[in-house]
């Protein structure tokens, strides 16, 4: 009747073998000859028998079990903690004191057993009885329990009160010594089974079990069959020699000993001790200059590097130099997929496919055919772990290939040199305990999130993959704008992801946002106004990229670009729409072949985006209207765009054949990257 | 609430349902009877518990076990009677809503009583097995409770004249207890499932903490009671001053 459990079939308490062992020991203690000496406790005018001193108990344990004093003391403590013996003079102090403080045995009714836990109804009766006895004076935690129980078992509360009154009445009718002893017993019982705050709950055993450990199963054929299956599976499990696993443990411990803040202390100081949170600030997720310990840790193994967002950031710099930045980008995107919103799983999977996996994708990653096949098949029904195979492949690739070179690279070495070793601070001895402490609260998560997003935007802005030419065909939110322009045959469409202009940037820290997220927000709200923005970004970028200033100039001259300089936060996102071929196009394609894709030229080509840090994408219709007004300009703008056939995207651009292919491929390039499992028509997506 | 329509169709045929049917259809009387039965059941449960508390300790004895047996039988009988009365009362369609409510309340309360009793029976059985009085090598614990038979207010112990019969009965104590546990268990189950009285409809009649203001008759001088209270909690509650103050109050 009482709602006892809300569970998944877990009704049984686990085996508690130690209880039986303690009970056996207790029985031996009772022996009148070899047991413990009994005294009489004197409480005012009454004498209550059967009291023992702590030292007697200890001595008895030592002699009977022939163990050292330390061990005996430990055992004695345990016995008292579990409630088999309770102290008389300090009821709440459940330890064995080895002096003349008195203890008494607990009655078996109040022993802890495996079969049942201390019941709520009993506790309620006890509390009510105490209420009656003490006229409402209960301890705080008892009051809380009382109120909770009153609500929980309100329907039997009348019965509880009745029982409490009755128990109180009958209790008074016993003789005083008995009454006193019984009271002590009950109090001790509830101290063990409903521990007051601050005391350790020794009977906490975790979760209940599904199967009854005491059950004696009849050995039927079925049982035997199950046992055989179980043991067969156990044999098949892969095992590791203990010498090997222990060796691994030792190695790990040795390696990480210096990094362990408990074992080796932490610099500048342990914030929990000195109240100085500098340690946390210095080790913030994406701090500018990390500590030396942290940077050294990245060299321990690849996992350490990948776990640390700062490490990943640094690694990404290195990978960009090696033109394999997309690997880490893909890995991070997969992590985001795995740990992000369930509702966005499908979208994210599609986006990742289009960005990384599709033939001709902008940041195509190099995985083998089988893995690709599995992944594409899995993407028909996307779920969180659909990209696991590919992710593992890329992870191993990075680990075996890039990681080694990274550790020898100047980027890592530079970071190591830059890394700081904080000074150890002296512990401020607070002689005046009431000194007003300057409490600084950590920055609000909202602000931290904003900062992260800004950082991501910066990263995305600087993130250019110069390996693939197809980069510029990537979708951008503002591409949606180009629908319905003067180029009639152009498919209005952008990638499906552009339809969702309100995509939030990916949540993973340090994640380099895919360009089709709202890193480039509010696309062309001021479509072609000349608002030079973020030029400095390009300056920063220069150091990283091969830059051909001369070519920039020439192309600028040769282009009848739209007014003024446009900048975009997302470089290189030049739309590849169907455009009538033009000479500028050709020259530009040649320019691109040289692989200078991340030059600021692209920035000048893209329509301007005002520097809005948070995605507020204008509704499509506004933008379209604006564009239609300025269609002429837009057309011109389009002319700049390069028109590279889909097929050639994958290959490095070193053949001249493209140019001939271009006209034919015009129409092909119209097609966006279409997910093989989806079947949407381009018309559908028309703005 | 049409609780009884959901009862088992062969309602009247089972033996225990026929045993006690109230003669009068006076609902007030039925209610009073039920309430009285419930109160006495409650009392017996408390006595049973008092006895079970001493099992395995120095106060344990064959007589205690007998007494325990008797109490449990008594409780069993009472609970059966109570159940029948309540069933009969609930079955009557003439009941007014308040009376129906009262009876349902009593039903729920008697279910709780039975549940508690069932649990106590389990415990007692477990302890009896743990400390068989006839077995050798099992020492009783020195618990400080030496409960003599001067338990005023309890029912007096049975005369030792029938002791011969008692001893043979005591040998059957263990299986008897087990049977009882089973009986009570099944009764509990039956009660829970047959009559559909939702538990949450019953509310406490008194508010929380009301019992603390109850005036109980002092069993001795006020100071003695105080001393007992003080002795009961040396140093535990924050308000206690400890032994020296105790001495002062007792003078």
Automatic annotation (TrEMBL), chain A:
GO BP, sorted A to Z: G protein-coupled receptor signaling pathway; intracellular signal transduction; negative regulation of signal transduction; regulation of G protein-coupled receptor signaling pathway; visual perception
Location of this chain's protein in the cell: Membrane
Domain RGS: 301-416
Record-level Gene Ontology MF annotations: GTPase activator activity
Gene3D superfamilies linked: 1.10.1240.60, Regulator of G-protein Signalling 4, domain 2, Transducin (heterotrimeric G protein), gamma chain, Winged helix-like DNA-binding domain superfamily/Winged helix DNA-binding domain
Limits of the DEP domain: 32-107
InterPro entries in UniProt: DEP_dom (IPR000591), G-protein_gamma-like_dom (IPR015898), GGL_sf (IPR036284), RGS (IPR016137), RGS6/7/9/11 (IPR047016), RGS6/7/9/11_DHEX_sf (IPR047017), RGS9_RGS (IPR047077), RGS_DHEX (IPR040759)
Superkingdom of this protein's organism: Eukaryota
Membrane-protein topology: Peripheral membrane protein
SUPFAM superfamilies (alphabetical): Regulator of G-protein signaling, RGS (SSF48097), Transducin (heterotrimeric G protein), gamma chain (SSF48670), Winged helix' DNA-binding domain (SSF46785)
Keyword annotations: Membrane, Sensory transduction, Signal transduction inhibitor, Vision
GO cellular component, one term: cytoplasm
PANTHER family (alphabetical): LP21163P (PTHR45746), REGULATOR OF G-PROTEIN SIGNALING 9 (PTHR45746:SF1)
Protein name: Regulator of G-protein signaling 9
Species for this entry: Mauremys mutica
Lineage: Eukaryota, Metazoa, Chordata, Craniata, Vertebrata
TrEMBL record, chain B:
InterPro entries named among the record's database cross-references: RGS7BP/RGS9BP (IPR026512)
Region of interest (Disordered), ranges: 1-24, 147-166
UniProt key word Mitochondrion: no
Keywords, alphabetical: Signal transduction inhibitor
One biological process term in Gene Ontology: negative regulation of signal transduction
Recorded superkingdom: Eukaryota
Keyword Coiled coil: no
Record PANTHER family: R-SEVEN BINDING PROTEIN (R7BP) HOMOLOG
Recorded family membership: Belongs to the RGS7BP/RGS9BP family.
Protein name: Regulator of G-protein signaling 9-binding protein
Organism of derivation: Mauremys mutica
